[in-house]
User: Fold these one by one.
Assistant:
Number 1:
Amino acid sequence: MLIIAKIRWTKKDEEKLRKTIRNYNNKIRRVNAQSPTLGAFQPEKLRYSELRNTIGDRKEFNRKLNSLKRYTQRGSEQLIERGGELFTKYEIQENAINTRILNTRRTLERKKLGLTTEEGRSQEAIRRGLQPKKFKGTTREEFDIFKASVENMLREDLKETQYVDYKQNYIKALQSNLRDFNIEELIKKLEKIPAKDFFNYSVSNRFTTLEFVYDPQEQDYIFETIIEEWESIV
């Protein structure tokens, strides 16, 4: 599907996308050569022109780029059995990331509208399509339908103020939970990231989510992990 682009493509963007697609396709070829049986479960190779036409804005560009890079990581091609069906580790991981992004957006929308998923108010959230989304199927067909629906919903955008609110709340959580650590330099780096990019970065990595900030583990571990993850991103 051709998307009306809101992104101003630069030569650097095009080179990044071409290189990432090349690495992605090369891995698919290697897996097929090493094991045709495993290769049958891998994603289809991509064409630059076709993928480029599906990218509508900077947020989508970064999301696609990061997704393709995750496939090139070691082990992403391996198979996992779910409900008697076989899936690649990559597609399970990507669906989990996309679902988490979507549900975080919906949480922000519900909060803005004063809605909860508690008894008595959940029907309004459902009517507005803001209830948490969760895969409950077992078959490959059900998985593919769910995955496609989540990807389509991700193309809908939040208002800029909601991204700003999320970023502010995240930074406040860091300052509150890690007050015994020197985090000024980390905060300075985070504050420079545009709010929308900040949202997409943080919810795409389980070690940078708000849930991880509040994780009941040793604060030293949380602090070191968050710094390491953000520095690898920015």
Note: The chain has twelve helices and two strands.
Number 2:
Amino acid sequence: MHTPDDPLIPAQDMERGYSSEIVQSVWETAQVVPGNDPQVWRRDESGAWIHRLAYRNRRSEFGWEIADMGTVEAARVIERSGNLGG
């Protein structure tokens, strides 16, 4: 199992495609879970755990991506392994 801070995946590749501000904005739409650091752990709309540093990390069980719904305002978090067979 790979961790969200896997050295095999360059950090600059993690947020490719969206600005850091958009990635953070979408992250903030994910569910905060009491007792967990909301800067690190959240749940997506399906209830799957996601890790902030696992953005676009398809090797992590906590990986997540942005579901582009046409506008930045409509973008949402999707967990990779549960929703898209990542």
Note: The chain has one domain: 23-83.
Number 3:
Amino acid sequence: METEISKGAETALTMWEILAPILTAAVGWGAVKLSNLIAAKTKNERVGGMLARLVGTVKTAVVSVNETAKAEIAAAKDPKSPGGAKITKGEAEQLKKACLDKIKSYWGAKGLSEAARVLGFDGGGLESFLGDEIEKAVAETKGKPTGNP
């Protein structure tokens, strides 16, 4: 009887010696995968949060400029003039620049630099993105479809 028990123990020990490195490798692989998943999720949440705050700032700037500068320009124009009370392309560019300036003042140079880094923009990419978002927000305030969800 002792021989059967010792043979069983010996077999279990041999199996353990074989399986231990495999199990160790599997646990290590799982830990690496879990770590990568957590890192990706954290990065995605940070990018998403940064993008949401940036777009929210754009909308705030558009509303602010729309209530102040656009009203001043429209009030200064004569409705009976050739263009009527409509804003010219040049004036629209001024309004867009005013929105960009507001966004820059809200975020500051360091904040915009961090946003560009987190969102993966290089050079003037962030300013171009902000310009597109301003135009989208202006279209939304006018009730026009923007083409983007």
Note: The mean pLDDT is 80.
Number 4:
Amino acid sequence: MTGNNVYMVIIRGRPNFPNTMTEEEEKIMGEHFEYLKGLMAQGKLIMAGPTLDDSGGYIILNTNSEDKNNTSISLMYSKDQHFLAAINGT
């Protein structure tokens, strides 16, 4: 029998990120959005969106204890490193 785990990830970026994105960052955000849509289609994403102060975002994931291939927090970060670099300005 497997158990479900729910994780909330808060990603902090630079202030006012959505209104100050470069063209490259907009491209990366599009890729990030497609990645999240894939997680949603797999039933692994509960919700995601920007923080109220527009300096980052949050992701709420649903996974089970046997899901070792796709939705561990560390794998999510490794697959979405370009997004994390963009919002932090690195």
Note: Residues 2 and 9 are 22 Å apart (CA to CA).
